[in-house]
Amino acid sequence: MAITLKIKENSKQVGNKFKRLGSALPRIIDKGVKQAGFQLLNIIRTKTQKGIDFRDRKFAPYSEGYLKKLNREGKKTAVDLFYTGRMLGSLTPSSTVKKTGKHKVTLGFSNSEMRQRALFNQVLNEPKRQFFGFNKRTENIIKKQFNRFVQKELRKFKIWVLEKTLQQIYWLLLATYQAQQ
User: Fold this and answer.
1) What is the pLDDT of residues 100-145, one digit of tens each?
2) Rounded to an integer, what distance in angstroms lies between the CA atom of residue 174 and that of residue 154?
3) Strand 104-106 with 98-101, pairing
4) Which of the 8 DSSP states describes residue 148?
5) Could you tell me which residues are beta bridge partners of residue 105?
6) In which element (H, E) is residue 25 found?
7) Cα–chain-centroid distance for residue 168?
8) Among 40, 79, 113, 164, which has the minimal tally of Cβ within 10 Å of its Cβ?
């Protein structure tokens, strides 16, 4: 009983794929970080429109004088930091989410006047209405989405190490060899 075994190795192809992966990984991470910035921006806008701060608590109510002003002007009296729409409008994705370093993005306001208004709402005003930030829950949501994106991109490289298959071939060859002895 003779066994003929042909083994084709593709170490050169695997090496090339790893080189491509090494050069593409920083771009993949940067793209994922930028997507995370857009996702955070969307979460900030959504929570603010619902009248919730970044810690998931309702905003403090408007003062009586401000409520009277809103009623006179026929505007909504819900606490959602929306008067003209310019402050949250200056949080546009194209100008707000910027790459500011290696694997880092920064969110900000594109208009300096609106930046001052946001500072007033966030820090200077009493009561504070802290809308621009994120908590641990939001961080985990964004982290999960980032990991999914990176995994999806890495799957495109199709580098598969089929360890169990290699072990099974090894044991099959060993058993065949021992049977011949």
Assistant:
1) 777 777 777 777 888 888 887 778 778 888 888 888 998 899 988 9
2) 35
3) antiparallel
4) H
5) 99
6) helix 11-49
7) 40
8) 164
